[in-house]
Specification:
- It contains nine helices and 17 strands.
- An eight-stranded mixed beta sheet has the order 4-3-5-6-7-8-9-10, with helices on both faces.
- Helix content is about 30%, strand content about 25%.
- A hairpin with a 5-residue loop joins strand 1 and strand 2.
- The protein binds 2,5-anhydro-1,6-di-O-phosphono-D-glucitol (AHG) and manganese (II) ion (2 copies).
- The site of one manganese (II) ion (MN) has 4 residues, from strand 5.
Length: about 325
């Protein structure tokens, strides 16, 4: 019998620092446990709403809380992280030991989809820790300093997509042996696309350039873009980005008047949603922008800062930026 290359073997072959291999092994373990909980569906006890709200005032699902705890314990066990930050925790979470990395994560992305049996995911970003006892400021590093970034999509198959700065690679969970196996190497996002993903129910709240861009896509062959566009929206960023890394497209969560009224700079969080996805997409030859500049060049001011996100096929991201410049 033959098996493929495991995640750990592949990271070693690529010359990855041993502590980072241990940390990624911890993330892989966390996601196997989460994948198992999700796969139990209504037969398990992971589904449903908790009685609590997170720091952003969103109602937490039971699985949001459980996934967060699993990430904490496997990161601690790896001995490779000095501390953590998560969507589900207001403040940074110091770990004991002398780990050299910081792990910043969204333990469960797309939680509104859990109860309806649609794909959800986990997103993570790895930074170098400037000290053994990192402060909040130590976490506020621009995305261009990430040493690794990835997500796991809990779909029909559980797949981890990871970059350590040497391309973006896919590892599929082989449930029979309990290992992530290298399944696609060096993903390449097609440069051109005719497929966009946006929550169009917010259209009336968008800024003028976004209104114009989507209107021109919808005008199709007869409009200024001179071709028909297709639309997709899964409402799990992980699943939408996975489609884009697989067959191209553009994913947009713009700033809008409703978000601005709540003093939010966007819907998606810079440090554990936008930055890791931006690194993965750029490492696959795509682009990631706020519409006004590269996401990974933003100097974070807060752990839970939000930003507009426009990412995917390079030509189309450039097209959106051109609407913002006009
Ligand atoms: P989370 O479940 O971690 O709060 O993130 C949900 C995000 C993202 O996954 C998705 O793209 C977006 O929110 C969905 O937004 P809508 O509710 O506007 O569809
Ligand atoms: Mn999320
Ligand atoms: Mn989440």
């Amino acid at each position: 019998m033959q098996t493929g290359t495991t995640l750990t073997q592949d990271l070693r072959v690529r010359g990855t620092d041993e502590a980072l291999v241990r940390l990624m092994d911890g993330v892989a373990t966390a996601s196997k446990v989460i994948a198992d909980g999700i796969a139990q569906g209504d037969l398990g006890d992971a589904l449903g709403t908790a009685e609590t709200e997170n720091v952003q005032g969103e109602t937490q699902k039971k699985l949001d809380i459980v996934s967060n705890e699993i990430f904490i314990s496997t990161a601690q066990a790896s001995g490779a992280a000095a501390g953590l930050a998560s969507e589900e925790m207001e403040d940074i979470y110091p770990l004991v030991g002398d780990g050299e990395y910081l792990l910043v994560f969204d333990p469960l992305d797309g939680s509104s989809n859990i109860d309806v049996n649609v794909s959800v995911g986990s997103i993570f970003s790895v930074l170098k820790s400037p000290s053994n006892n990192p402060t909040t400021e130590d976490y506020l590093q621009a995305g261009n300093t990430q040493v690794a970034a990835g997500y796991v999509v809990y779909g029909p198959a559980t797949v981890m997509v990871l970059t350590t700065g040497q391309g973006t690679h896919c590892y599929t969970l082989d449930r029979a042996v309990g290992e992530f196996i290298l399944s696609k190497e060096s993903l390449q996002v097609p440069q051109r696309t005719s497929e966009f993903a946006i929550n169009a129910s917010n259209q009336r709240h968008w800024e003028e350039p976004m209104q114009a861009y989507i209107a021109d896509c919808l005008a199709g062959k007869e409009g200024p873009r001179e071709r028909d566009f297709n639309m997709r929206w899964i409402a799990s960023m992980v699943a939408d980005v996975h489609r884009i890394l697989t067959r191209g497209g553009i994913f947009i969560y713009p700033i809008d008047a409703k978000l601005s009224a709540k003093n939010q700079g966007g819907k998606l969080r810079l440090m554990y949603e936008a930055n890791p996805m931006a690194m993965l997409v750029e490492q696959a030859g795509g682009a990631a922008s706020t519409g006004r500049g590269r996401i990974v060049d933003i100097a974070p001011e807060h752990l839970h800062q939000r930003v507009p996100v426009v990412l995917g096929s390079r030509d189309e991201v450039a097209e959106v930026e051109a609407y913002y410049r006009r």
